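Apologies for my clumsy wording, but are you able to produce some protein sequence, whichever is easiest, and the C-alpha cells describing how it folds?
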Amino acid sequence: MSDERDSGQKLKKALGNATDLDEKEQQKLNEPLSDPTGVDTDNDKFLDDILGKIEGGQIDLHTPSSLINQDVYKRLSESVQGETDLNTVSLLARLRELKGLHDLGQVESYQFKNLIEQVRLTKERLEKDAGDIFII
C-alpha cells in the first residue's frame, strides 16, 4: 500500500513541476515526423491518380459510389456487393484523411506515407478476388 502512495506522491510532485511550453515549441511537437525517404514511386503514381480524380470531380469524398467502377460492380453477387459497399466507406474515409494531410502540406510525414500504402494495399486486396471494382 505504501508503494502506491509513494507513486502517487511522486506523480503529484512531477506534475507540480511541469511547465507550460511556449506556442512555438508546442507547434513543433504537434507536427508529424518527416520521413526523409519520401514516397516510393508506385505509391507516388497512385497518389497522383487519386488526387487527380478528386480534383477532377471523378471522386467525391462524401459519395462512396463515386469510388466504385459501376460496370464491374453490377456483375458482382449481392454478397460481394455488400462487402464492397462496406469497404468503400472505409476507403473513402482514408482518402479524406489523405487529402486533408495533402492540403495541410504534410506530404513528407510517416503518417502520409503509411496512409498511401494502406489505401493502395487495401484496394489491391479487395480487387484480387472481385476484379477492378474501384476507379483508382
